[in-house]
């Protein structure tokens, strides 16, 4: 497992739950979300900082 | 008989909160709320003051990842009488500093009567690395998270630990501007974000209470040390408050039973006014809980309740927030406490 500090942006959603879901979906493109926060919110974008984890693929002999 | 009045207090760590961004300096706020509420749920950053802490019998010490799961209604909280605490020490801690941690642990066993299992040293240095985001919030990563999880698993399986205390070696940089600013009460805690990542890893993997204390050599005496940072410069470790908190931290459960606490029982949540972008707050904003935001607890975040689409009562201070809690618990409309009260209006056709 490795840990990574990343940032992301998502569009504002119609509800707080949908916001959480959209953030988790966006972060999952880069790993399993461990901790995140919306650091800056305006009418057009939500800026998110996060730490995600990834699991290394097992090394296989060709 | 009315149900217990339950408050969640959030002061996220590592965001430079004017109150709570230093060495347990939100603990007086927690103490005041615990006096008003029947139950207070808050996280280690609020209750930990390194050597200093305060036992609050109606307060639940809930790690941040666990608090997020609780707020999302995935986990409940099961009160306990005591937890067996397993201590994980980072292999990267040098021997003298490691001995200081063990002596702190022995001190809480002898003087406070807490139950600790035998301890474990990780099989590799954890390799904590610190980062600061563009927002100014501090974050961190660790190079060997698997080593941390292996150690915690050993304590849980073999020593029957019910809570995990982690002590990780943090990078030294005693002359850094960030540390100076923090010690003088106007910076962002440079360690906080990484500390949260460490405990989140354990809680996410094992669904067990966890908290972290950094291992650092003592700092040189600073004659202009801020009172807010002073608690972290009293001794050789940050461990006592962590062990005190974990000793009665609630267990996490996924199926309700009598006596457990679930998110629908939360009556109010209090958070800094510009730090409304956390998972826990977003989830609880969709529940009947009253959201109260405090303006004078400024942070580096720029996520107001309006920007997040959250309906909140905005107050200037925690003193005012306490007043809102008292009125709310008593079933009093706070509008009735103002000099002027508007007459009732007919329901608008545009109302939701």
- The fraction of residues assigned to DSSP E strands of chain B is 15-25%
N-to-C SSE series of chain B? EHEHEHEEHEEEHEHHEHEEHEEH
Strand content of chain A: over 45%
* C-alpha end-to-end distance of chain A: 23 Å
Pfam families (chain B): DUF3326
InterPro entries (chain B): DUF3326
Protein name (chain B): DUF3326 domain-containing protein
Organism (chain B): uncultured Leptolyngbya sp
Description:
The complex is a heterodimer of chains A (62) and B (352). With 62 residues, chain A is an alpha+beta fold. Chain A has one domain. Helix content of chain A is 19%, strand content 45%. A 3-stranded antiparallel sheet of chain A has the order 1-3-2. In chain A, β2 (32-41) and β3 form a beta hairpin. By secondary structure, chain B is of the alpha/beta class. Chain B folds into 2 domains: 6-79 and 253-332, Glycogen Phosphorylase B (Rossmann fold), CATH 3.40.50.2000; 85-245, Rossmann fold. Chain B is 30% helix and 18% strand. Chain B is built from 10 helices and 14 strands. Chain B has helices at 27-36, 44-47, 64-71, 95-112, 145-158, 177-183, 192-206, 239-247, 279-284, 318-330, and strands at residues 6-9, 39-42, 59-61, 76-78, 85-89, 120-121, 128-132, 138-142, 163-169, 210-215, 251-253, 266-272, 290-294, 313-315. In chain B, the strands form 4 sheets. A 6-stranded parallel sheet of chain B has the order 3-2-1-12-13-14. Chain B has a 4-stranded parallel sheet with strand order 6-5-9-10, with helices on both faces. In chain B, strands 4-11 form a two-stranded antiparallel ribbon. In chain B, α1 (27-36) links the parallel β1 and β2 (39-42). In chain B, α1 runs parallel beside α10 (318-330), α4 packs across α8 and α5 (145-158) crosses α7 (192-206). The longest helix of chain B has 18 residues, at 95-112. The chains are: A alpha+beta (62), B alpha/beta (352). Chains A and B meet through β1, α1, β2 and β3 of A and β8, α5, α7 and α9 of B.
